[in-house]
Amino acid sequence: MKTAKQLQIELDGKPISLYTLFNKNGMSVDITNYGGKIISLFVPDKNGKFDDVVLGFDTLEEVIEKDFYFGAICGRFANRIKDGKFNIDGVEYSLAINNGTNSLHGGLHGFNEKVWEVKSASEKELVLSLLSPDGDEGYPGNLNIITTYTLTDENEIKIHYEATTDKATIVGLTNHSYFNLKGVGNGTVCDHQLQLNADFYTVLDESFAPSGEIRPVENTAFDFRIATVISERVDHEAFVPGWGMDNNWCIQKNQAGDLALVGYVYEPVSGRKMEVLTTQPGVQVYTGNYIDKVIGKKGKIYDRQDAICLETQGFPNSPNVPHFPSSLLRPEGKYDEWCVYKFSVE
Ligand code: BGC
Q: DSSP characters for 146-171?
């Protein structure tokens, strides 16, 4: 069995380390308290061979310097807020614009760039906390966040997000891991199959923020209710041909708060399958469209479509679309959401 890595550096006087969780099947996951990032994840294939299935970097210095949200916790609000503006109880709030005309993933210095405090660390569980102060990146309210990572003996990574505020605010947290089930650095994910339990998707406007329209997937390129090889769709004009998929699907569920099966990604040669479950209403499927020859682990090159992200989250731009599931958190409430990545072989 591996032992927890002793790597440690400091940023602004705060310690940044790498924590390793193990399970009885030999799976392991390395997570750093910088951005709460999953750095590597070793998963068996159908012959019992372990490979690292997430994009990342070899050193903590590179993790800080290069970012790309690889494996990070995105917040205070994951994905886009149109024009970086929203309104709560008649007060308009403005965020930094960091993506075209919109605010993306919490702004210029989102939760992916924060040094999270380590509340506890064991071989099974890592508990991180963060205080995002009132006015942080323009968001109102002191927000206290706890993110708990658990690696189970059922080969699941469970991510539990809990947050409370002292003033009405908006919250939307996600994990931004980039998966390649053939193993990191082994080329495209276009040969992976994707299945999504989603009858609807949110339509994007010209700025790539959801316009508010929700459309059925029926008879469109967005219909992944039956598992489909990604290469069959990725260049469809419904997405961005030559770049890939970067859209939010509405997850089928019986009741808010239920842990619903979002769908899965399957890679036939390794036999690895990753199911995704969440309590959140949406999933952003992103094929690493803006990754352009990034030098990654062991000098391997990461390119566009070499990974797939299934970012479970609230619907992007929901603070500006009243009929989307609400992302509003008030002092009397609690943000309490789960995302589970479950690995198996077939
Ligand atoms: C967004 C992409 C963005 C990427 C950044 C995704 O969640 O939808 O548009 O480029 O994150 O890593």
A: EEEEEE-TTSEEEEEEEEEESS-EE-
